[in-house]
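Progress report, Aim 2. The chain analyzed during this reporting quarter is listed below.
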Amino acid sequence: MKRFLDKMATYQIYERGAANTTDYKIFFKDAKNNFISPFHDIPLYADEGNKFFNMVVEIPRWTNAKMEISTKDILNPIKQDVKKGKLRFVHNCFPHHGYIWNYGAIPQTWEDPSHLDENTNAKGDNDPVDVCEIGQRVCKRGDVIQVKVLGTIALIDDGETDWKVIAIDVKDPLANSLSDIGDVEKAMPGFIRATVEWFKIYKMPDGKPENKFAFNGEAKDRAFALQVIEQTHQQWKSLMSKSKENVDISTSNATVTGSPQLLASTEATEIVQSAPPHSEAGTSWDSSIDKNHFVSVLQ
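Predicted structure tokens for the chain:
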């Protein structure tokens, strides 16, 4: 099954496995009809001159399923995170419902778990850089959109640096009036504060303490965020140059020049076709996911 993202789509998605099960995966094809990795084969830049970046949408706004690029699987499909054998969902922490932005990742970035960040004094989380897209459109899972970076928040998650880049779709009506993180407060009062609160409390219904941040939760500006993206892009390049496949992360790809883990088109197709066929007849919806949780934190 495939879905075109728009009339001029560069990428298509192919769903495999039954919906709402651990078998469900989203694979990607490029404009040449080849299966690719959304982590490695989609370019960092959509427009390098204007510093517009590609963003892979993993989780549409207002949804709860914790979908993510699977860094360990060959071709890195999007699939739902699993915890203790069960599909993972984020709770609704009042007044929020699900994710409050379109949430996803910047391709060709990687937070190196062996690198101690000089700003956060914590090592990377072994994932591509996360993005919170704050525009008005609710995206679809698997969309590849072009975004303008406005700033970043540094979440410290289980002792690891987990950058959360704040960005806006370049096609959004507000995009031309937002150039830096300070502009967000002027146009969308309280939104950055709500974003920090969301990340602070979203694990608390599971009995975990509130999350911590570098810089006391202060959002850093666009220039700082661009430095983070460039640094993690260089770390990704180093990862892709390794002669052997990383045991913790798949670097197999279809297009990266000089990569030792380059896949032939036939190999990539076989990987996708070996996954169970797509079906909407997955497990039934768990109504407990819709519950509101009321949590408080010390101010």
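Helices lie at 181-187, 191-201, 222-240, 265-273. The radius of gyration is 19 Å. These observations will guide the mutagenesis work planned for the next reporting period.
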